[in-house]
Design goal:
This protein is α+β, with helices and mostly antiparallel strands. Helices cover 33% and strands 36% of the residues. The chain has 3 helices and 6 strands. Strands 2-1-6-5-4-3 form a 6-stranded mixed sheet. A hairpin with a 2-residue loop joins strand 1 and strand 2. 17% of the residues are buried.
């Protein structure tokens, strides 16, 4: 019976996470409180839901068509691991780079810990250097 409950929990967590990503891809960040705790932590930093949402909104402001394509989703108990291909068109300032109109693509890996069915902690790695290289032909912002 425990294995059955655990399996149902894993399926429920995956389904909720997919709904969360759908919400992100719709850029409906204000509704993320349904999926993320008020005191969420990211990369060992206490962010809180408002800053968590602002970070996603900042990415969407720089890349209005930003999309997180979920390539792999693994779950065990209250843990989720997701691998994405991220893409978007650069229309606003991002990490000091003025809009270029260029399309970018990069990989992202995120590990989440859920509490009561909501994201309470996330450890995420995005290759921002690859994005900057795509936007600047390899020249870092502020370099000659």
């Amino acid at each position: 019976m425990i294995a059955g409950k655990l399996g149902m929990s894993i399926h429920r967590n995956k389904a909720l996470y997919r709904q969360c990503i759908d919400r992100c891809n719709a850029h409906d960040f204000d509704g993320l409180g349904e999926f993320v705790t008020e005191d969420v932590r990211a990369n060992e930093e206490s962010l809180g839901l408002e800053r968590y949402i602002q970070g996603l909104a900042d990415v969407a402001a720089a890349f209005p068509d930003y999309h997180w394509r979920l390539d792999h989703l693994l779950a065990e108990g209250d843990w989720i691991c997701a691998r994405f291909t991220d893409s978007g068109t650069h229309r606003g300032t991002f990490l000091g780079v003025a809009p270029t109109g260029r399309s970018v693509s990069t990989f992202e890996l995120a590990v989440y810990r859920l509490v009561d069915g909501k994201i309470a902690e996330v450890w995420v790695t995005v290759d921002n250097r690859a994005i900057i290289r795509q936007l600047t032909d390899g020249n870092q912002p502020g370099s000659a």
